[in-house]
Design a protein that fits this description.
With about 120 residues, this protein is α/β, with parallel strands linked by helices. About 40% of the residues lie in helices and about 20% in strands. It has one domain: Glutaredoxin, CATH 3.40.30. It contains four helices and five strands, in the order E-H-E-H-E-H-E-E-H.
Length: about 120
């Protein structure tokens, strides 16, 4: 799924309301954030590596209500969400390997078969 730049809180809410299943990775950044700019190529690589995952970029200056909701204080901040906007994982800083590991972990756990109950 291609990434989208979301420029209003309303568009973010509408997107999340329409997302019935699957993982969403949200990068909270700003146009003036140099670390966010340098992460752009990694974001594109991650997007290509994980087609079923939705990738969104939010500008904290334009989506301040959403940034406050997810308690964004540093940039970039990555919030990995389940359907309905439930926070599964949160990462601060431009570390592509940490973001990749978080995605892998969440995708693996969501496809793992249920465990058999322990016998008494």
């Amino acid at each position: 799924m291609a990434h989208s730049k979301v420029n209003t809180d309303e568009k973010f809410e509408a997107f999340m309301a329409s997302r019935k299943a699957g993982l969403t990775v949200v990068e909270f950044g700003a146009v003036w954030c140099s670390a966010c700019k340098s992460f752009a190529k990694h974001f594109k690589t991650l997007e290509q590596a994980y087609p079923p995952v939705a990738f969104l970029k939010l500008d904290v200056d334009r989506c301040s209500v959403t940034a406050d909701k997810y308690q964004v204080e540093k940039m970039p901040t990555f919030v990995l969400l389940a359907e309905g906007g439930k926070v599964l994982k949160r990462l601060e800083g431009a570390d592509p390997e940490a973001v990749r590991a978080a995605i892998d972990s969440l995708l693996l756990s969501s496809t793992a078969p249920p465990r058999a109950p322990k016998s008494a």
